[in-house]
Amino acid sequence: MVACSLACWRCRWLLPLLLGLAIIMGIIALAGRGWLESESEPYVHQASLWESCKRGEQDLNWNCESLMDYGWGRAAAATYLVGFVILVICFALAVIAFSIEILRFNFVRGIGGLLFVVAAFQIIGLVIYPVKFTEEIPLTGDNMFSWAYGFGWASTVVVIGCAFFFCCLPNWEDEVLGNIKPTYYYSSPDRAPYLN
């Protein structure tokens, strides 16, 4: 293990902090209007997880239609939202688990399992959206999946990383709790004459 890597008592808060970061990125993805945008001028199209907005080249007002009218829109929003809700629950459980003086490591492994479920839900939503959007919504000009969609993927990547750490953490229970004395390696000049 590296110098700190959860071996010290203060470092145990790194994983809940990363889950909090994933929640912030998930909120940005859920609220952001930049899931799909026009890549170059004229900027005539932008979309969020919830709606798709278009305007004419000379028009200043956006005409929006709800993506909840489509089955795939409801599916994408529901799967990403369910994953986000489970992520918030995992964050609360992680804060509780790491606040207890003696960690319950089987509890921590269960949080890791739930985080894999979160990642599965989020990936399903993040894959359904662009595939069905490009098939069923007419696009004009060059369009790109933009910053809010990227925050959705960033949140998912952080969740996957945290899931692995939460699942593997019980393997280093003694190191995290500080039950292992440090091992020092040295040799005396009598035992290693080749060092002289």
What does this protein look like?
With 196 residues, this protein is α+β, with helices and mostly antiparallel strands. It has one domain: Butyryl-CoA Dehydrogenase, subunit A, domain 3 (Up-down Bundle). It is built from five helices and five strands. A five-stranded antiparallel sheet has the order 4-3-2-1-5. It is elongated and about 85 Å long. The N terminus is likely disordered.
Short description:
The protein is an alpha+beta fold and 196 residues long. The protein has five helices and five strands, in the order αββββααβαα. The chain has helices at 14-31, 71-99, 105-136, 147-168, 173-177; strands at 36-38, 45-47, 51-54, 63-66, 143-145.
Characteristics:
single chain; alpha+beta; five-stranded antiparallel beta sheet; 5 helices; Butyryl-CoA Dehydrogenase, subunit A, domain 3; about 200 residues
Walk me through the topology.
Elements: H1 14-31, E1 36-38, E2 45-47, E3 51-54, E4 63-66, H2 71-99, H3 105-136, E5 143-145, H4 147-168, H5 173-177
Antiparallel strand pairs: 1-2, 1-5, 2-3, 3-4
Number of helices: 5
Widest sheet: strand order? 4-3-2-1-5
The proportion of residues forming helix, as a percent range, comes to 40-55%
- Total beta-strand segments: 5
Give the class-level CATH name.
Mainly Alpha
Largest sheet: 5 strands, antiparallel
Low-pLDDT windows of residues: 1-7
Q: Strand share of the residues?
A: 5-15%
User: What is Rg?
Assistant: 24 Å
Membrane topology: Multi-pass membrane protein
GO biological process, one term: apoptotic process
InterPro entries: P53_induced, PMP22/EMP/MP20/Claudin
Organism: Gallus gallus (Chicken)
